[in-house]
Amino acid sequence: MSTGSVVVPDPNPDWGAMATMLWSSATDSGVSTFYGSTDWATLYLLCDTVQHWTEQGGRRSPELLRVVMQGLGSLLFTEGDRRRLRVELEQPDAEPEWQAELHLLVSDMSTATP
Fold first, then answer.
1. What is the mean pLDDT of the segment spanning 38-65?
2. 110/1 Cα distance (integer angstroms)
3. What pLDDT was estimated at residue 11?
């Protein structure tokens, strides 16, 4: 798949349900419109890591899950991640639901917390 000049790799066909769901969620998200090649490479690596994590027998590493969640956060993967940076996806009234636009909420930088 290609988004402008950014080539989006195909998901790994060997991924299980969880890694595939993460990949599909990202490709459907309005924020992915702004992903560059390195963002897609990072997401691919994270999905591979999730696949490895879900294949582990017995106890799964909570540290590995923390690292994956931190990586997804750097990609603004969840609404909570975006809210912390005051970025909100909105659905325009006149456009179909799947055409989310990214709106930056401008606020006084002195009140923003790092």
1. 89
2. 40
3. 95
